[in-house]
Design a protein that fits this description.
The chain is α+β, with helices and mostly antiparallel strands and 277 residues long. The protein has two domains: 96 residues, Orthogonal Bundle (Arc Repressor Mutant, subunit A); 144 residues, Tetratricopeptide repeat domain (Serine Threonine Protein Phosphatase 5, Tetratricopeptide repeat), CATH 1.25.40. Strands 3-2-1-7 form a four-stranded mixed β-sheet. It has a three-stranded antiparallel β-sheet with strand order 4-6-5. Strand 5 and strand 6 form a beta hairpin. The longest helix has 27 residues.
Length: 277
């Protein structure tokens, strides 16, 4: 099982110490502040308790984008935030833009303590009561990588798969940083599906493997590895004819989408399965 390692060091444990000198106890919401719920996978919503933070609360688009950037990233310097959100602005303009966006972000969330500034970096305060689907997804994958023996990774993979509600910030206008993050998360979700399917297959749970591999194919239709795994799982269930039909459908898909035939490995699997019919 191979799960891509997280590329960014979170570094958050030592960053959640002060907000311009104000202490915040770990695990507490602080002054009765309602828990914050951030959904960035499959949409882009923020709730304070049961109350949605609306466009009117944000004031304009950048404070909202800034929150999603901070909540799904390691601590970032002013320069890093500027490169992501205001790449065309001068240093002076960046200072003004960041100051205004931070003020509006903190106002929208009802408490300045949700954003920390320490050691020259800004960070989302993860020590407060919150629920962020990207954080859940990445933590579950990290636990899956650490799991020993490898088969014990399955519950963590399933938790990650459940947390992934769709593409990162789907439907929200954001800078290039969001597309980069979206692509990364898509690849990691794809890897989680394949890993879960293979663990099911290794344990003889071929129907569950089919479910995982079909989800992987739906997520990335041009990934031939997922198609081969699906074909093999159907064959293990005694549905060889279905696996052969799938190869024919894949051949047509590849011809229409990219103008190439299936890979030699995929064709070799098809031939082996055809001989079993």
């Amino acid at each position: 099982m191979v799960i891509p390692a997280q590329r960014r060091k979170t570094g958050r444990g030592t960053q959640q110490r002060r907000v311009r000198g104000s202490a915040v106890e770990p695990g507490q919401a602080g002054n009765g502040q309602a828990a914050l719920r951030i959904r960035a996978l499959g949409g882009a919503t923020v709730h304070r308790g049961d109350t949605p933070v609306t466009a009117a609360d944000w004031g304009y688009a950048k404070p909202r984008e800034l929150l999603f950037l901070l909540a799904t990233s390691a601590p970032m310097s002013r320069e890093q935030l500027g490169a992501a959100l205001w790449p065309e602005q001068s240093r002076q303009q960046l200072g003004n833009a960041l100051h205004t966006a931070l003020r509006e972000l903190r106002r929208a969330l009802g408490d300045p303590g949700w954003v920390l500034y320490a050691d020259g970096c800004y960070a989302f305060n993860t020590s407060r009561g919150h629920d962020c689907d990207v954080e859940t997804f990445e933590q579950a994958l990290a636990e899956a990588r650490r799991a020993q023996p490898a088969g014990s990774a399955l519950p963590h993979l399933q938790r990650a798969i459940a947390a992934y509600g769709g593409d990162f910030l789907a439907g929200m206008t954001a800078g290039d940083w969001a597309q980069t993050r979206r692509d990364e998360l898509r690849r990691r979700f794809e890897a989680a599906l394949l890993a879960a399917g293979r663990l099911h297959a290794a344990a003889g749970r071929h129907q569950a493997a089919v479910t995982a591999f079909r989800q992987a194919v739906a997520h990335e239709p041009l990934n031939e590895t997922a198609h081969r795994e699906l074909m093999s799982s159907w064959a293990q269930l005694g549905e060889t004819a279905r696996a052969v039909r799938h190869y024919q459908e894949l051949t047509e898909l590849l011809r229409e989408q990219v103008g190439v035939p299936p890979a030699a490995e995929t064709t070799a699997l098809f031939r082996r399965l055809s001989g079993q019919r």
